Please model this.
Amino acid sequence: MFRERVRRVIQPPAQENIDKLEKVVKEGNYYGAQQMYKSTSARYASAERYSDALNVLQSGACLQLDKAQITCGAELSLLFAETLAKSKVPYDEDTLDRVRKIFRKFPRHSVPQHLELADDDDLQKLSEAIAAAKTRVEGCSSFLKAAIKWSAEFGAHRYGSPELHDMLADYMYSESPEVDIGKVSFHFVRGKNPKKFASALVNFMGKCYPGEDDLAIVRAVLMYLSLGNLRDANKLMDEVKMEVELKHLHFPSSELTQYVNYLLLTLQRDALPLFNMLRQTYKSSIDRESMFNELLDDIAEKFYGVRRRNPLEGIGDFFKMMGGD
Model:
């Protein structure tokens, strides 16, 4: 007990360690600095000096990312978010701003275009760029998912901070060499920027496989509706149609998009029989993607109080997606 008290007393001020570690980073000893950032912050945390631990981790994450040490910076970023939860820091604007500052340090680079893939050097460049992009996205995603989990637990919306979801969706979409539009949509619908989401969807429509464009739009609308968010579901559709028109593109016309237009009108009133009739009429289109029926079950429950036959269905989907499965 006496030793523990002494250990707590002799820990130097955080700024002293931050200055010392900054010199190590600037000398190019990134690996050595990384081990010191981790051990120093761990000592502060074990002494319950969480504010000092967070200061050390934030400084280290930002410095390593500034020096393009993505793996090191991402690891310290993740530790920062996990320490927020461990120390039970309340969600507030000041702490959110600290998360923002780290997030902004994650670099953004486009994968090289117009390369001669028959050329070995160009092929190597492309392979390296794709691997680097995957590392950036995985690192940033792990950090922001941990921050979202903290925000949900300590004061933000039950699904976590909408702004953090928007950050993650935007980074995943813009930086992933192979975009999983379903995972991107999962975070956008828990955000608060349907206009930006619409831009991402219209951009995706220009490069997806034939027949995927209407699926992406309808999936996004149903995801909003499954959360009970009719306002943003309508706003998303309006924004997509407006942007498609401005860019002189064609809005995908299919039975599925026709169905979702009718659905949005139906949900504005108490019309469960019509909801069920539409679902039956467009069943073959809805069955194009298995998750649509799950989402429609959620929508029926949210808007009309229809309980699932198995109340455990759908539980855990949020955490499964957050884990990247």
User: Anything to note?
Assistant: Residues 120-153 form the longest helix (34 residues).
